[in-house]
């Protein structure tokens, strides 16, 4: 197998205790595609099952590429670095994978920058059609949509469903944990035997700081009788999803993809999600949608779903079926074709999430 070096963004931690969404996605693909080596900042602890090359900055990365001479370099979230690599290493196929809105990214803001990226890179890959639509540029042979994967076989087994309403995600204004607290404060007194629980911190990992916003959410959750666990390893989040009846993803911002929603569906929980960004694209008909930032609508949705067991079962079944489309085994084959020479064919590489 040709060696592929996958370069993480500088802030990503490739560790079981502190991995963010990009690190989790990269690891899943790396385990499915032999010959993959991950490159990122030097860290004290990393995933032990994937080869990892520490690099302190651009110069370290460039020297490593020159020394190792891989056939493929896949750069996540760093347009300028990807273009520089493509210009310096003409025989290397360089892919740029974008997990966020490309418009404000350095290296893609201007028309000439987008044209340069399209001219030099092997592919530009977006994790959702929503993000692809945010990119001004046409090159059908170079642009593709590849959703984030989830390794279904690695999920914890689902147990008995507790009457739990779960929020799992970063405690930031964009993720709307305050909306979750406000909605549950209204709904819980009307739901005998139900409880609500929150997992997350300002950042991933045990070193997440207690920001002023996190402190306010913690206090508001306590006042509403909502459990607040703080940041936990990803395995603990998946275990909580495997036993929760309802998972809520109430994001204010336009989620570029919605990995938490995908994990909730795959875990067999009934999903409530904000109707924004890539979330409807990921969940399809397997979620109950609410307007972003609308606490009264979320409270009504929680009440409706918690008091209707049949509806929860229907959403859970749809969610499992929907999540199967995103299994790593399926999407890794598509990624391998994207990395290969030749044009990217729409019928092979896009449309995974089409309803």
Strand order of the largest sheet: 3-2-1-4-5-6-7
Spans of at least 5 consecutive residues whose pLDDT stays below 50 are 347-351
Distance between the termini: 34 Å
So what's the overall shape? elongated
* Overall tally of structural domains: 2
Cα radius of gyration in angstroms: 21 Å
- State the secondary-structure class: alpha/beta
How many helical stretches?
A: 14
Predict the CATH topology of the largest domain.
Answer: Rossmann fold
- Strand element count: 13
How much strand content do the residues show?
15-25%
CATH class of the largest domain: Alpha Beta
Mean pLDDT over all positions? 93
- Largest β-sheet summary: 7 strands, parallel
CATH H-tier superfamily of the largest domain: Glycogen Phosphorylase B
The topology string of helices and strands comes to EHEEHEHEHEHEEHEHEHEHEHEHHHH
What's the short story on this structure?
The protein is of the alpha/beta class and 355 residues long. The protein has helices at 21-32, 58-68, 79-88, 111-120, 129-133, 177-187, 212-223, 234-243, 259-267, 279-283, 295-306, 309-323, 328-339, 346-349; strands at residues 4-7, 36-40, 52-54, 72-76, 93-98, 123-126, 143-145, 162-168, 195-199, 227-228, 244-249, 270-274, 287-290. The chain has two domains: 4-149 and 327-349, Glycogen Phosphorylase B (Rossmann fold); 152-325, Glycogen Phosphorylase B (Rossmann fold).
Structure description:
- There is one protein chain.
- The protein has 355 residues and is α/β, with parallel strands linked by helices.
- It folds into 2 domains: 4-149 and 327-349, Glycogen Phosphorylase B (Rossmann fold), CATH 3.40.50.2000; 152-325, Glycogen Phosphorylase B (Rossmann fold).
- The protein contains 14 helices and 13 strands.
- The strands form 2 sheets. A 7-stranded parallel β-sheet has the order 3-2-1-4-5-6-7, sandwiched between helices.
- Helix 6 (177-187) runs parallel beside helix 7 (212-223), helix 6 packs across helix 11 and helix 9 crosses helix 12 (309-323).
- The longest helix has 15 residues, at 309-323.
- The model is unreliable at 347-351 (pLDDT under 50).
């Amino acid at each position: 197998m040709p060696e592929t070096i996958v370069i993480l963004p500088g802030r990503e931690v490739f560790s079981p205790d502190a991995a963010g969404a990009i690190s989790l996605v990269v690891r899943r693909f790396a385990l499915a595609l032999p010959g993959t080596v991950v490159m990122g900042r030097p860290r004290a602890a990393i995933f032990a099952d994937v080869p990892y090359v520490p690099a302190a900055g651009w110069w370290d990365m460039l020297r490593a590429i020159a020394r190792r001479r891989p056939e493929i370099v896949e750069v996540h979230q760093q347009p300028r670095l990807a273009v520089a690599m493509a210009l310096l290493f003409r025989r290397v196929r360089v892919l740029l994978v974008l997990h966020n809105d490309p418009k404000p990214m350095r290296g893609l803001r201007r028309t000439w920058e987008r044209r340069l990226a399209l001219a030099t890179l092997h592919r530009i890959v977006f994790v959702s059609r929503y993000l692809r639509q945010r990119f001004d540029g046409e090159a059908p042979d170079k642009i593709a949509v590849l959703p984030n994967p989830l390794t279904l076989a690695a999920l914890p087994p689902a147990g008995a469903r507790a009457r739990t309403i779960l929020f799992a995600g970063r405690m930031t204004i964009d993720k709307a944990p305050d909306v979750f607290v406000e909605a549950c404060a209204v709904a819980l007194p009307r739901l005998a035997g139900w409880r609500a629980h929150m997992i997350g911190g300002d950042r991933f990992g045990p070193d997440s700081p207690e920001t002023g916003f996190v402190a306010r959410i913690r206090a508001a959750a306590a006042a509403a009788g909502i459990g607040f666990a703080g940041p936990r390893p990803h395995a603990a989040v998946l275990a909580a999803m495997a036993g929760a009846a309802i998972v809520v993803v109430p994001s204010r911002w336009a989620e570029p993809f919605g990995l938490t929603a995908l994990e909730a569906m795959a875990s067999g929980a009934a999903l409530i999600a904000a109707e924004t960004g890539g979330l409807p694209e990921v969940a399809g008909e397997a979620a109950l949608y609410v307007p972003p930032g609308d606490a009264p609508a979320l409270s009504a949705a929680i009440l409706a779903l918690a008091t209707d067991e049949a509806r929860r079962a229907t959403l859970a079944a749809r969610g499992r079926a929907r999540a199967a489309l995103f299994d790593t085994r399926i999407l890794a084959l598509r990624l391998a074709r994207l990395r290969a020479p030749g044009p990217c064919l729409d019928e092979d590489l896009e449309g995974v999430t089409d309803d």
